[in-house]
Design brief:
By secondary structure, this protein is α+β, with helices and mostly antiparallel strands. It has two domains: about 5-140, Jelly Rolls; about 145-220, Orthogonal Bundle (Arc Repressor Mutant, subunit A). Helices cover about 45% and strands about 25% of the residues. The protein is built from eight helices and 13 strands. It has helices at about 20-25, 85, 105-115, 120-145, 145-165, 175-180, 185-200, 215-220, and strands at about 5, 10, 30-35, 40, 50-55, 55-60, 70-75, 80, 95, 100-105, 170, 200-205, 210. The strands form four sheets. A four-stranded antiparallel sheet has the order 3-10-5-8, with no helix packed on it. Strands 4-9-6-7 form a four-stranded antiparallel sheet. A three-stranded antiparallel sheet has the order 11-13-12. α4 packs across α5 and α5 packs across α6. The chain is elongated.
């Protein structure tokens, strides 16, 4: 019954609910627009669940010395913080990458519905299963993706970290450093960057790649198929 609502490996969460349960879930919710670089979830903060109406959001782990590891990217129609509805939320940071519209759910209302309505808990379970598949793909693309996909992931990851530090989506790295990072040659990486530049996705300067279209860059990563 839920299968027709699946799109590829991902789930349009609200489409899994009946009109009645969708309205009940969205009662007392708030919708806000967040600027790029906003952190909407801290490990020490309260549990929160969102529906990403439009935009691009990154989840990552961080350690005290400043190192970060990207966990996943959320795209339009994704549920963010689904684990908070049925269990405990992981200690991750959640970063808005581009101007994004998010609906913050009333968490107690969502938990109550999940406890009483099989359709709601099934939708959350379907979403979480899809997230596992997506996150496995994100791990695999770093080594098994084609060159364009590996370059796209590396640039997006670097740019998101840069956004938090200097407020700009850019990767400070030479072509040789990018090649070392993805296990390729400088010449091959230079050709991949030329293709991304010609497509208007990035701009390049000596030792610097500016990400102009992060959603399109993320779509390249997202297209990886195991």
């Amino acid at each position: 019954m839920l299968a027709p609502n699946l799109v590829g490996e991902e789930v349009d969460f609200l489409s899994l609910l009946s009109d009645v349960n969708r309205r009940r879930l969205l009662e007392h919710s708030t919708t806000d627009v967040y600027p790029p670089g906003t952190i909407i979830r801290y490990p020490e903060g309260p549990s929160r669940s969102f529906v990403l109406d439009h935009g691009l959001v990154r989840a990552y782990w961080s350690v005290p010395d400043g190192r970060q590891a990207t966990v996943t990217f959320f795209h339009a129609k994704d549920l963010i913080g689904g684990t908070a509805i049925v269990s405990h939320q992981p200690r991750i940071m959640v970063q808005v990458v581009v101007k994004s519209t998010l609906t913050t759910l009333d968490l107690e209302k969502a938990r109550s519905l999940a406890a009483s309505e099989i359709e709601v808990v099934a939708a959350v379970a379907m979403h979480l299963a899809a997230r596992v598949r997506v996150d496995f793909k994100l791990i695999a693309v770093r080594s098994l993706g084609n060159l364009r996909e590996r370059v796209a992931y590396d640039l997006l990851d670097r740019a998101c970290r840069s956004q938090l530090a200097v407020g700009r989506l850019e990767a400070k790295a030479t072509h040789a450093e990018l090649a070392d990072s993805i296990g390729s040659s400088r010449e091959v990486v230079s050709r991949a960057l030329s293709g991304l530049r010609e497509a208007g996705i990035v701009e390049t300067a000596p030792g610097l790649v500016r990400v102009i279209e992060p959603v399109r860059l993320a779509a390249i990563v997202r297209a990886f198929v195991i």
